[in-house]
């Protein structure tokens, strides 16, 4: 069974049983794959710092660090977000199957391993993982730097560009980043509202897009370049001045006059004067209608 890729599929096998490793290694190499071997969890974590395999075969029961903990630790690395981890275990009872899935695994096979079944399962999960990565890379290419978090601010997934920008789970700044998101989301922001981030090296903001399945907050990472382009688009479409377009942009982001004044270094009264001109040029009567017009335009960018 050959995998139809120009580049060889890289498989990391994590198992402390030498005989099992030999048998799996022979089957994978015969299928045209490259095999990396880790005899215990810490070795797998060390390998993962330098190499990202296409799929991981994980023994559930190992000394020192079992497969469940190793899986959780691997999944803390954003590079492993889409990497399928398949558990290999002699334990087929429900409790251990659930433990493997909760740790981040996608499937399990029971020992002794049926290599034909194993390769078939790998084929399915590799195809799904590649489709997911392709979709996220396409979003990046289109400038849609998207990611999702849970209600506690924990990162669930992100496009490749976002994963490179955001602090990783073990990064010293990650707790502050998570707390910022958790606090902001607790106020139930409306779609289009943004949060300036204070923990990243470059100034950025996060835009709330939607709540998916009542558990996954879909967000967009925005850079000053995004904001400058957005202001320019508003200025051109509605024939606004530079300051008017800046004010309208921040209105669309859900900011109050006081907050806009602080951001743009002007008084709330001056903000209000600009808003009067914005309303006139957009042909609307209030800030809600102005924000809606701006959001509709920016959604097409």
From TrEMBL:
A biological-process GO annotation: regulation of DNA-templated transcription
UniProt domain Response regulatory: residue ranges: 10-126
GO molecular function terms attached to this record: phosphorelay response regulator activity; transcription cis-regulatory region binding
Sequence ranges assigned to domain HTH luxR-type in this UniProt record: 233-298
Highest taxon listed in the record's lineage: Bacteria
InterPro entries, per the entry: CheY-like_superfamily, Sig_transdc_resp-reg_C-effctor, Sig_transdc_resp-reg_receiver, Tscrpt_reg_LuxR_C, WalR-like, WH-like_DNA-bd_sf
The entry's keywords: DNA-binding, Phosphoprotein, Transcription, Transcription regulation, Two-component regulatory system
Keyword Transcription regulation: yes
Residues recorded with modification 4-aspartylphosphate: 59
Gene Ontology cellular-component terms listed: cytosol; protein-DNA complex
PANTHER family xrefs: REGULATOR OF RPOS, TWO-COMPONENT RESPONSE REGULATOR ORR33
Name assigned to this protein: Two-component response regulator
